[in-house]
Amino acid sequence: MFGGRKTTPTFSRHQRRRRAGTLGFPEGACARLKYLPEGHQNVVRQVELAKCTGRGLTRAIQLSAAFVEAVNNQQKLKDLPQIVRKLSQFTIGPWMDYHTILRLLKELRELLTAHGFEDNPGVRWSNTTRAFNTEVFDVFDGSQVVIELLMKPMLYPSEDKSAREQEKVQRMQNLCLEILHHVFANVGIIAQERGEPLDLVHYLFSLMAQQRTFLNAATVLEDMLQVKKDMIRLENIPNFPELVNKFNQQQLANFCRVVSVAMSELSESEDQLTLLYQDEAAKRLSTIPIPDCNQEILVALPDFIQRLVDLACRKLDEEQVSLPSMMNELESWMTWMDSSLAFDALFEILENQDLAYEFLDDPFGPIQVPMAMKAMREIMYKVEVLYVLCILITGKQRNKVGLVTMVTKEIALKIQFLRLSHSFCDHHGNKYLMMSESELNELGRIRVQAELPVVPEVSDIDRFWLCRAVESFLRGVTCFVDQIWLLRRGLLEHVLSVIIDPDCDNKEILQSSFDLLGELMKFNYNSFKRFSRFMDNEDKFQRFLKQVSSHLVDSNMFIRSVVLSQEHFVTKQTEYSEFATTQCRLLIHVGEPKNRTKFLCSLINIIQVSTLTQENVSCLNTALVILMFARRCGSLPLYLQSLREEEMRGYHPGFLLNNFRSLLRFWESHYLRNDKECCALEKSSGISLDYWRETTLTMRGTDRSNVESIIHYIDEPYVEE
């Protein structure tokens, strides 16, 4: 709103760790080898030497059988190293003994569960049993051996394999994928190390072309892409368009979960969320960002968007979606299922009795799929699809992505759809496409009564849409008709009730409520009249003001809206000037110089250049709006003097003013090179960009004799350049 806070959904990647620079051994393996039995400590020296020279002991399978047995016995590893060694013999050459391989892989899968070493009293390599099992497995080259087994069919392809042999190959690959998922999910650094060479990533994509290996390959891909150091380029994946085109609807939904990681630039740390970091990164960037390239590739795929729309619009069975009964029915399953991929894995087992007998140690006859589980899977499909649509519609390809119409009852799905609607409505001329014919007719009647011209975007509507993200619907150039339409539905009173509720202290709720309130009231006399009627006693009004002042980052957009409105009524809609200056308590309160000064000091005090983000940069723009109006009426020196006095009261000369100068320097570098941001500021405030620029340049000028420059109010010893 107002070119400040951006509420476009952002998405965070799993915490990454630094990639190891070792050869075959994982970085952590060298440290853990120090726990080896006495008499074998020279192995550590051999490993360290191999790291430097590239020769000698570079893989754990090169360790002697006697050494491996000694470690196994002392650390009580239940023959895990020996199992890995036995499997490694099948990684060389075309020969395969599938019966033995499947048996060994199943033994590994069992050992790698949380209970594999639960009776081991000597655990000392890791704080948790699960991670301990995984690290032991990786130390002894288990991850690499399983990867080599997984990819072996690619190295030794055979066109004339029988159906039975193909089934054995896929069973082996699925077991390998299950083991890799366990390893990657429990120790992220292993996933990062194994994912750097792209041959494994590309091979996993190829396995998604097979019905039997799709789910496990997608799961492992998601594990790897979430922690991968560099974002993958979809253009480099062999036969990518053909692969996606072959997906059925179920596979396409799960593919959305995987590919979403490659569609948006995801921050790694708090530092990288700051606007300063992002601006510096943008200056260094000489090519088109990878997420933008990947989004372009996806949008260009034949019928890709339409297929997503079809998935999102697929209706749910009303009998399946009663939330209380659904939760009761699913309660016993939920600890296992943490993703839509897990849902589909279970469905594959439950709906295929032969597979169930293969998967379960003690088969128990025909299994019925719970009705509620079918509904839940369908809901999760829609969530994944809407997530991808939301990313696409906020990216560079947004104009190529059509709108979506759908109805649902489930909360998670509603959240994703509202994000999608919000992204579409944000400064978008087609936002009226989301309204029904009767709603559009009502807008027309309001326009006629107000004697306003016809808006082309409204007059050309011939479709209706059932959902709307209200605050983004109002965002941009203020539309009186839109505001009145929403006011008639009691939205203002509802939002005010939320804000003054004594139990309301949720930051997200308060921020969205204040943002929406600001858009509903900006430049609208009727809104302020309704506000005054609602605040019919002093207690309500003071509770409201307390929420405003104690949650300034969340409420500053609303403050800006009231400041803009107060000036608008006094200078432009002068028929409401008396109302703004003598009747409306809110406008009077915000219009008083002492209160504006208090807001100004607080706004500048809570932000610094190093901590500016899309969420709090709006505080800087609100402070500038206050000062631009002060400059317009000749009182800017009084406000700057008040900042100096605030510093002196706190015995910190120069603190606020130097900070403000730094913020203005950043403002110029950030906004004046960004046409979209500048346009949003200009449209939402009604203040020309030239006046924004002129005011900032004046205040951060170097002429100490100029009473409108900040430096005039900083004693020379405290000036920071």
UniProtKB/TrEMBL annotation:
Pfam families: DUF3689 (PF12463). Signal peptide: none annotated. GO terms for cellular component: Cul4A-RING E3 ubiquitin ligase complex. It comes from the Eukaryota. Coiled coil: none annotated. One of its GO terms (biological process) is ubiquitin-dependent protein catabolic process. InterPro entries: TRPC4AP (IPR022162). This is Short transient receptor potential channel 4-associated protein-like. It comes from Branchiostoma floridae (Florida lancelet). The lineage of its organism: Eukaryota, Metazoa, Chordata, Cephalochordata, Leptocardii.
